[in-house]
Amino acid sequence: MPGILLDTLRGGNLFPRPLWLMRQAGRYLPEYRALRAEKGGFLELVYDSEAAAEITLQPIRRFGFDGAILFSDILIVPYAMGQDLEFLAGEGPRLSPRLVDHALGGLQAVPERLRPIYETVAKVKVALEPGRTLLGFAGSPWTVATYMVAGEGSRDQHATRLMAYRDPAAFAAIIDAVIEVTVDYLSGQIEAGAEAVQLFDSWAGSLAPAEFERWVIAPNARIIAALKARHPDVPVIGFPKGAGEKLAAYARETGADAIGLDETIDPVWASAALPDGLPVQGNFDPLLLESGNAGLEKRAIAVLEAFASRPHVFNLGHGIGQYTPIAHVERLLRAIREWKG
Ligand code: CP3
Q: What is the CA(231)–ligand 1 centre distance, in A?
């Protein structure tokens, strides 16, 4: 039984709409915070496949979402490529050595760092009830490279954009290396049981049009073509956050089966600008959800209505915030489930 999420990603226009939330497994859930306190930290959770599988399932048990997204992180790929990875409380991730002043060739790959993630996928797959879809994911090469180069999150991705102009050959080598690991990593997730995968390109919005073509569209197209050669029936969701009007080219040129839309995109514009019948996912503002504003349901329905003529997976425009009250998520869920098109 494939379920309404997988059917929608394959092009079915189904009502009520399937629903999941980016970052649905995480800190806004008290059951996540409890397990994290017990295990000590984020990476400890990711590398304990029993705990990671449990966290993947927590939001499904609580809310009955149509999709379960693997609990892991996009920075596991640089970790497997040989950078050290730490998550500092209150400061976010740190990768070292950073490639702004260290050669890619000096890294010693540690592919075993991917194996526990496949174990998590396999454990979730066994436990997930039929009709719910198991989603794997990876970061897109551009976004992953911004962390590898700067060693941390950065405003405007300044150092990485500069490197891409100053030394395009060196930067292309980083992108190529990320592509290769990402194809293997997503294939591994699929072979362990992931039924669809998402490519997160959180910082796609910082690039000028020609660089967007080169560092976002081309690498995503290569990953998708390689995955299609190995796993032709597994849908790939592309999420180029901040792409704006460049979304139409992204949709035409990458071969993605579905496109994620952030909250800055006008859904009426997107529905007109994207190829007919192409499934979309997103675009409800996570901060409207966090606020609990009285207009929350009305806006959710406006998103649903704008996409009524094409397959649509209801989701947020970006990850759910850690201070989002559970009661607001429940309100959103009720509104989506009651709307029948
Ligand atoms: O539920 C899910 O969506 C699955 C798990 C998931 C996580 N990160 C767990 C996580 C996914 C899909 C990601 C993607 C991710 N990670 C992205 C792309 C999407 C996005 O949100 O923009 C990026 C840029 C990262 C890198 C990353 N990981 C940062 C910048 C941080 C620190 C900031 C923060 O929110 O704390 C993380 C940590 C992280 N990844 C947490 C979770 C649940 C928080 C860990 C904790 O402190 O408990």
A: 26
Nearest-atom index, ligand 1, CA of 56: 1
Mean pLDDT confidence for 90-106: 95
The owner of tokens 């500069």 is 162
Structure tokens at 41: 């930290």
- How many angstroms is it from 74 CA to the middle of ligand 1? 7
- Pocket test of ligand 1: the residue of 73, 91, 148, 313 to mutate, having most ligand atoms within 8 Å of its CB, is 73
Give the C-alpha separation, 227 to 307, whole Å.
28
CA of 243 to the centre of ligand 1 (A): 20
Domain ranges of the chain: 4-338
Q: DSSP per residue over 13-63, as a string?
A: --SSPPB--TT-SSTTSHHHHHHHHHH-SHHHHHT-HHHHHHHHHHHHHHH
Q: Which atom of ligand 1 is nearest to the CA of 143?
A: 24
Residue 44 corresponds to which tokens in the numbers above?
């400890």
- Output the pLDDT for position 1: 67
Q: Is the pLDDT of residue 213 over 80?
A: yes
For residue 174, report the distance from its CA to the centre of ligand 1, in Å: 22
pLDDT tens-digit series, residues 84-93: 999 998 899 9
Judged against a pLDDT cut of 90, whether residue 15 lies above it is answered with yes
Fold of 4-338: TIM Barrel (3.20.20)
Beta strands in the chain (DSSP E): 67-69, 84-88, 92-96, 133-139, 196-201, 236-240, 258-261, 280-284, 312-316
Q: ∠ CA(212), CA(216), CA(219), 5° rounding?
A: 135
